[in-house]
Every structure is written in structure tokens, then in C-alpha cells.
Amino acid sequence: MAFIKPSPLSPLLTLLLFILSYLLIPAHSVEFAVGDKDGWHIPSSKADDFYNEWASKQRFQDSVLVVNDTEYRKCHSVQPIFFSNNGDTEYTLDRPGLFYFISGVSGHCERGQKMIIKVLEPHSEPSPPAGGSGASKAGMIGASLIVSQIVIALLGFFFS
């Protein structure tokens, strides 16, 4: 019976295949254009809730500030949590709760260019039924990912 002698590069190839297998894990992000087709502007009407109504329907080229509740109500911030005026701002909503955004241009917030975004708690999976299998979809995906990585590593070891 003949044995396949592994190449000296087998461990390196195995590691490379293992690392590349992580590229198969999907990443999810979403970009929104604030105000949809109307964009980030001063509302034409006295509708103070223009952006809040827009944001409630969503699940964001001027400056934007992330502020606290008090600064949001006053439309003024001396030390904002975040400031950007590059025209291509991205802000990560990294926790559940309320995020307050106002325009950094003098007078714009007072005229309605502000909004609140509420980030909901992550949806939790329902408890498995009593006496059921109890395997969640996420657990099965994780297990299949581990198995596929092991198979790829073994293939790299034996066929390199």
C-alpha cells in the first residue's frame, strides 16, 4: 500500500486554506441616504418630524453631529459625541438605544434638520420546544462552517 508523502508546504497551504475559508462568512451592512430622494436638507415645511418620520420607515452634504438628548432638544452642542463635515459620513450604530443627530450648520437644526434613530435590541431566537431537537439555525450554520474548514484543511494536507 502506497502512502502520499506530504509536501513541506502542506502546513502553509493548510493555514492559507483555513484563512481563506473565513472569506465565505457573509458580512452584512446597510447604507441609507437620509431623507431618500430629498436628501439631508432643511425641510421646506415646519414639519419638525420630517427626518424622524423618514427614519421610522428605515431600519444616513453638510455637517452632522451626534449629540445627547439635551443637546438635541436645544439644537446646540459644544462637545458633540461625533462630528463630520466631509460629505460622505458613515456612523456606526453600535448599541441598542437612541442616537440623536443634528446639522452642524448654524440655524439648520432649529429649522428641522435633525433626527433621532432608535436601534432595537437584537432579535433573540425563540426557545426550542420541549422534547424537540433544540438545534438552532445559527448553531447548525456554525457547525457546518467548522466541518467545512476541517475538510478544506484535510484536503490541503493530503493533496498538496
From TrEMBL:
The keyword Transmembrane helix applies. The keyword Transmembrane applies. Keywords: Membrane, Signal, Transmembrane, Transmembrane helix. One of its GO terms (cellular component) is plasma membrane. One of its GO terms (molecular function) is electron transfer activity. Residues 1-29 form the signal peptide. PROSITE patterns: PHYTOCYANIN (PS51485). The chain crosses the membrane at residues 138-159. InterPro entries: Cupredoxin, Phytocyanin-like, Phytocyanin_dom. Residues 30-121 form the Phytocyanin domain. This is Phytocyanin domain-containing protein.
